[in-house]
Automatic annotation (TrEMBL):
<keyword id="KW-0378">Hydrolase</keyword>
<dbReference type="GO" id="GO:0000967">
    <property type="term" value="P:rRNA 5'-end processing"/>
</dbReference>
<dbReference type="InterPro" id="IPR006641">
    <property type="entry name" value="YqgF/RNaseH-like_dom"/>
</dbReference>
<comment type="function">
    <text>Could be a nuclease involved in processing of the 5'-end of pre-16S rRNA.</text>
</comment>
<dbReference type="GO" id="GO:0005829">
    <property type="term" value="C:cytosol"/>
</dbReference>
<dbReference type="GO" id="GO:0016788">
    <property type="term" value="F:hydrolase activity, acting on ester bonds"/>
</dbReference>
<dbReference type="InterPro" id="IPR037027">
    <property type="entry name" value="YqgF/RNaseH-like_dom_sf"/>
</dbReference>
<dbReference type="Pfam" id="PF03652">
    <property type="entry name" value="RuvX"/>
</dbReference>
<dbReference type="InterPro" id="IPR012337">
    <property type="entry name" value="RNaseH-like_sf"/>
</dbReference>
<protein>
    <recommendedName>
        <fullName>Putative pre-16S rRNA nuclease</fullName>
        <ecNumber>3.1.-.-</ecNumber>
    </recommendedName>
</protein>
<dbReference type="GO" id="GO:0004518">
    <property type="term" value="F:nuclease activity"/>
</dbReference>
<keyword id="KW-0963">Cytoplasm</keyword>
<keyword id="KW-0540">Nuclease</keyword>
<feature type="domain" description="YqgF/RNase H-like">
    <location>
        <begin position="4"/>
        <end position="105"/>
    </location>
</feature>
<comment type="similarity">
    <text>Belongs to the YqgF HJR family.</text>
</comment>
<dbReference type="InterPro" id="IPR005227">
    <property type="entry name" value="YqgF"/>
</dbReference>
<keyword id="KW-0690">Ribosome biogenesis</keyword>
Length: 141
């Protein structure tokens, strides 16, 4: 069994967090937060990360409400981002329910470093970690 490298994204209109993990361990680490203008990242920055890590798969968090329904304000934009990742770079992309990932990320970061740890970039990357680890759990469930 060969290890597969997966990069996850926590899509946002101002910042897009990312995390990297391997399916053998089922764990993820924060990677980088990409600044975005109205949801549009600097695609060159994303391309650099993808070229460096050469992932086997990309996972994009799909914003949903507590009942699992797409959040109308942001879910279509996250789907568009996922489609653009696939179209621009040719990597396979999966969407994964990210419900409550930001809340969980804030809680974990606060436990580790108090308010100082709660910068926007840190929260977005930690959310991407939670999305990816949740995706791993769903694969093995």
């Amino acid at each position: 069994m060969t290890a597969k490298t997966i990069i996850a994204f926590d899509y946002g209109t101002k910042s897009i967090g990312s995390a990297i993990g391997q399916d053998i361990t089922g764990t993820a680490s924060p990677l980088k937060a990409f600044k975005a203008r109205d949801g549009i990242p600097n695609w060159d920055d994303i391309e650099k990360v993808l070229k460096e890590w050469q992932p086997d798969l990309l996972v994009v968090g799909l914003p949903t409400d507590l009942h699992g329904k797409d959040l109308e304000s942001i879910a279509p934009r996250a789907k568009k981002f996922a489609n653009r990742l696939n179209g621009r770079f040719g990597f396979p992309v999966e969407l994964h329910d990210e419900r409550l990932s930001t809340t969980e990320a804030r809680s974990e970061l606060f436990e580790m470093g108090g308010y100082k740890a709660l910068s926007k970039g840190n929260v977005d990357c930690q959310s991407a970690v939670i999305i990816l680890e949740s995706w791993f759990e769903a694969q093995w469930g």
